[in-house]
Amino acid sequence: MNFYIKTFLEVISVTIPIFSVIAIGYLFKNKGIIRETAVPALNKIAYYLGLTALVFTSIVKYNLKEIFNIGIVKTLYVTFAIFIVIVFLIVYFLKINKKTKGAFAISAFRCNMAFIGIPIIVSAFGEVAAAKTAIIIGFMTPVNIIFAIIFLKVLGGETGKNNYGKLLIDFIKDPLLIASILAIIISYFKIVIPKPVMDLLNILAGLAVPLALLTIGASFKLSHLKKNLKLLAPASFLKLIIEPAIAFFIGRYLFNISAVDISITVILFAMPLAVAAYIMGKEYDSDSDFISSSLIISTVSSAFTLTLWLFFMKIMFKS
Hints:
Blueprint: H1 3-30, H2 39-60, H3 64-67, H4 70-93, H5 98-109, H6 113-125, H7 127-155, H8 164-172, H9 175-189, H10 195-219, H11 225-254, H12 259-269, H13 275-283, H14 288-317
């Protein structure tokens, strides 16, 4: 079989099952199997139990020296810094209302590295790559939260409603951040976790992928799409094409990290908008309708763009 055809079939065998489960979640909500009132609770179960356990177990399975690469961290932060400047300049000159500016900014950079990123990486690159992804999430969670709040405060929302104390507490209590830090410490010191505890965590980790994908589909609301379409398209283009392209050039030509590490970094930056962005938008009185619409557009579009990025990575590195 032709190499390119074989590679393409391998790639779509990764992306089709992931986005099919998201579609099932949307259909289940429309049929009333998943009630809209139950979606927030399901999101919390997926986030606090499933994804937290998955991040923790993915890291502790390996010696930290095997999965940690400072080159990835440098690539992450340089890419993010460049992209944030680009987004800020674009949003600053947009002739739109203040709330929508904040919503556009957060929609352009906040990536769903956990809910969709982990399933894609596991399917495409295996468990070692998943462990590296968990560490990346640990490093990116703080900057994602901090810059999301900066954009929502500076560019949109009502300043009087912000609570710095609550923000700091929520940041410190973020379960993925805690799980990443704890797992890194345990991995570094090679602490042995009792088998019953690991068995329990593995069971909880098994919830992460299917439940997270189902709740993304169940979160979709198709209202407000037409009203915001002119701005939604460029926001999604920035997120799904420009940001991962920057990551590719920084990783390959500036820091010269390995093929797998470049691929992981690019794919994670190519993720659609995180569901958490909508929750933050509501909290900070931003244009939550725009963020909700961006969630739909970027997730649906990413079914195609992620397939193309995976195909590009595999062709580029012949693996």
